[in-house]
Amino acid sequence: MPQACGNAGAPHELDAAAICLRIHVASSLTVCTLTSAIPPTPSISTPIQRISIAEGLDITLRSAALATYNTTTSQSFHPDHPGLNSSHGKSTTSIGTGYDLSNSVFSPDGRNFQVEYATKAVENGGTAVGIRCKDGVVLALEKIVTSKLLKKDANKRIATVDRNMGVVHSGLVPDGRHFVSRARDEASSWRGTYKAPIPASALANRMGAYVQAYTLYNSVRPFGITAIVGGYDAETEVDVDGAVGSGPKMGSGGKTPGAKEGGPYLYMVEPSGLYWGYYGAATGKGRQAAKAELEKLNLDPSKGEVIGLEEGVKEAARIIYAAHEDSKDKEFELEMTWVSAVNGPTKGRHEEVPKELREEAERLAKKALEGEDDMEE
User: Fold this and answer.
1) Is residue 141 classed exposed, middle or buried when 0-12, 13-18 and 19+ CB atoms within 10 A define those classes?
2) Is the bond into 40 cis (omega within 30 degrees of 0)?
3) Mind listing the pLDDT tens digit for each residue in 272-311?
4) Which residue in 82, 91, 182, 335 has its CB near the most CB atoms, within 10 A?
């Protein structure tokens, strides 16, 4: 039998009132006993219910937290002991207190604080940029060098999901790797079903739903990343499925009448699971500066000629260097990949930007940055 806490019926000073909580675990059952000792009222022992150990611990700890929260934020009242009444607890709590302990709880004004905290983790990550060009997509990342002992060009942050698809992420690196692993599973599942590479829109939709599921349950936490998905949908570029396997003569992957046209596509998936299609996207610590530079580029086909793929590589490097100015005291590596149509430089595959082109883009970016500094002086 669970034992009550405190000495029932013994005289106490007023400031000796206490709340004790003991959990008695026997076999697979838990009995929770809450005892309140307030003189001269005898202690009260109230079994809550018999439930499983895991559920009992969860419910009991939540009840204890809620009781503590109420006693510290609201006015206490004891009808039998007027001397115990106080008004010191009328002060309100800070924003988020009591509503940021679980990602399955909304605050009274409709905010999910755990998702907002995940967004803060993204804002501390390296700047990532995606540019949709007229003949492909460019992905770039500012990879901060945290130690001089790290091997150069190792620890890649931009990953290939399918032959025509790449993902760059900013935020918590382990979360990003899990995101990439799941994205590869989705791409493999799509190819197994439809005998074709997964379209960028379908991958963004599936990954958005997966990330959003991590905002619904208190047994998990939200992803601490924002991911940019870029790819070239080859539906109108190849006969069947990108010369991989023997796919259907029509349907997904084939030239079906009225089918969605292929081409470059860019999406960004946020910690909440929200995703949008973009002409240019940026995330990470330098996202504001990067967005300002992206808005200067002509990336909307309805407003004129869109920049080409090689020009997009040079612009991406310039934007990363410009966004890095706020953290100029930290050394970084520039990581870049691109994907084009089947008749383009990458032959429809997501690949790293060639070393010669990347070095040229970095040289031009540094030169442009030095020119801006000279103009300011």
Assistant:
1) buried
2) yes
3) 999 999 999 999 999 999 999 999 999 998 888 899 999 9
4) 335
Q: How far apart are CA 113 and CA 107, in angstroms?
A: 8
Q: How confident is the model at residue 17 (pLDDT cuts 50, 70, 90)?
A: very low
Q: Which residues contact residue 266 at a Cβ distance below 8 angstroms, ignoring those fewer than 6 apart?
A: 130, 131, 132, 137, 200, 228, 229, 230, 277, 278, 279, 280, 281
Using CA of residue 54, residue 59, residue 62, residue 67, what is the dihedral sign?
A: negative
Which tens digit of pLDDT belongs to each residue from 26-49?
Answer: 333 333 333 334 444 444 444 444
Instruction: Burial-class residue 207 by CB neighbours within 10 Å (0-12, 13-18, 19+).
Output: buried
Residue 142 predicted with pLDDT over 70: yes
What confidence score (pLDDT) does residue 282 get?
Answer: 97
Q: Give me the mean pLDDT over the 113-129 stretch.
A: 94
Q: What are the φ and ψ backbone dihedral angles of 325, each rounded to 5 degrees?
A: -55, -35
User: What homologous superfamily does CATH list for 114-376?
Assistant: Aminohydrolase, N-terminal nucleophile (Ntn) domain (3.60.20.10)
Domain ranges of the chain: 1-91, 114-376
**57 three-class SS:** helix
Q: How many CB atoms lie within 10 A of CB 300?
A: 11
pTM for the whole thing? Answer: 0.70
In 3D space, the residue among 49, 38, 35, 46 whose CA is nearest the CA of residue 13 turns out to be: 38
Average pLDDT, the chain: 76
